[in-house]
Amino acid sequence: MQTIGLLGGMSWESTVTYYRIINEYVQHKLGGVHSAKMVITSGDFAELAALQERGEWDQAAAWLSEQAQALQAAGADFMIIGANTMHKVAPQLTQAVKLPLLHIADATIAALHQANITRVGLLGTKYTLTQAFYKDRISAAGIDVLTPDAAEIEVVNSIIYDELCAGKIVSASKQTLLDLIAQMQAQGAQGVILGCTELDLQVQPEDVALPVFDTTEIHAKAAAARALAN
Fold first, then answer.
1. DSSP letter string over 190-210?
2. Is the entire prediction scored with pTM above 0.85?
3. Three-state SS for 146?
4. N or C: fewer beta carbons within 10 Å in the chain?
5. pLDDT band at 30, cuts 50/70/90?
């Protein structure tokens, strides 16, 4: 079994979910009392969120690279970033360490292709929804990406940072997210990507008529499968 290096704490709420899903996958595959070989770093997310808000992405890349170096020193065989937004600095990260990176968008693209999805709705932080690093990667795989409008993006971003990252589950916010998904369905979306690793705290597959592609679950299972591949 390979050792997974998880860059966590973005937020800790989703890191808990990663840890659970990865270990459930390993135990299901190997049985008994097996669990995953993992090393996890977890920085103070408030520091990173401030860098994101100020657009200081080089500093954010350096912040995360320090954690990646710690994973490498601890013996990880490959790494995953436990957040969609921070894949913006994936190129800098892979230059900072020699660890292979299992990209969250690539794992999600594989799931979309398997489901024959050609048009998908995307929810996530304002950085994920408005910048090219994530959407373009999916579009390049032949999948049309729909996003909310500018005002709605700000609403989703607030739900993520002000509520979910702080462990607050607000019922009215869930309905807001479900309404946005219905809106994208009316625009022809065949499925919806929960493109933030906290969104599964609010939206579950049974809540939505469309197929739900939960990036946290997809990424965690892909990491566990890679760890067991050899």
1. SEEEE-STTGGGT--GGG-SS
2. yes
3. strand
4. C
5. very high
